[in-house]
Design goal:
Elements: E1 2-3, E2 6-7, E3 20-25, H1 32-39, E4 51-52, E5 55-56, H2 62-68, E6 70-72, H3 85-96, H4 107-117, H5 133-145, E7 151-155, H6 163-180, E8 183-187, H7 191-197, E9 200-205, E10 208-213, H8 215-219, H9 222-229
Parallel strand pairs: 3-8, 3-9, 6-7, 7-8
Antiparallel strand pairs: 1-2, 4-5, 9-10
Length: 232
């Protein structure tokens, strides 16, 4: 992916397997969000291929990719602030049921199930505008889950969370993949969250993958330490 003469992504290849959380880390400006925008269809790559569950979607638009099972969240919160938490989640299920090719869901029952899974029962009837940022981000993840995705892209979902909230969020991600058997790709600057929640991590720097592997290997990779993690 290039913008004018600036190469933003170069020979980037990642795999996000079902039933697990895959991390994508790197310095600001490394190209992480650009990669998410390419994968979700908001940007067209200069070259390369994108596949969801074996289906080539490189030339498909964002809506088509969503129907194939791709969902995402954004760095900036994108919620319906005048709606309640429950209705924010429910609306995604209503939209999903218009897609046709995938089986319809019982929106009410699935909304209740998702509210419970995400631990949002105590705020379900409150307007999103009343929630602190950390809780609102959980609502955004819950809404994405209502489309029944096969792949979920999370762009800095722990932003604004306290240390305790981040720890709970990491456990929640593990619970989601265990229950839903989907693939999660997590972009996050909270290294503790990434190391604790992910089975595999890719490190992006200046638009290139400089390392990938399990957390312990990444944490001790001298190239990654020099480029991003730093020393204690």
């Amino acid at each position: 992916m290039a913008f004018g003469g600036a190469q933003v992504l170069s020979d980037v290849s990642i795999s996000v397997p079902s039933g697990g959380v895959t991390g994508l880390i790197g310095p600001n400006g490394a190209g992480k969000t650009t990669l998410f925008n390419v994968v979700s269809g908001l940007l067209a790559p200069k070259s390369g291929r994108i596949a969801i569950d074996g289906h080539d979607v490189t030339k498909a638009g964002p809506a088509s990719r969503a129907r194939r099972g791709l969902a995402r969240t954004y760095q900036r919160l994108e919620l319906f602030t005048s709606l309640t938490v429950r209705d924010n989640i429910r609306v995604a299920g209503e939209i999903r049921n218009t897609w046709g090719r995938r089986g319809r869901i019982d929106v009410g029952a699935e909304t209740d199930r998702t509210v419970e899974l995400m631990g949002l029962g105590d705020v379900a009837e409150r307007e999103v505008s009343e929630l602190p940022t950390a809780r609102a981000r959980v609502v955004e993840v819950a809404r994405a889950l209502m489309t029944q995705p096969k792949v979920l892209l999370l762009d800095e979902p722990a932003s604004g969370q306290t240390e305790q909230e981040t720890e709970s969020f990491g456990k929640l991600l593990r619970q989601i993949v265990d229950e839903r058997e989907l693939a999660i790709c997590l972009v996050e600057h909270d290294v503790g969250l990434v190391m604790g929640a992910c089975e595999s991590i890719y490190v992006l720097d200046y638009g290139e993958i400089i390392a990938n592997g399990p957390p312990e290997r990444i944490k001790n990779d001298p190239i990654v330490v020099d480029a991003y993690l730093g020393t204690p």
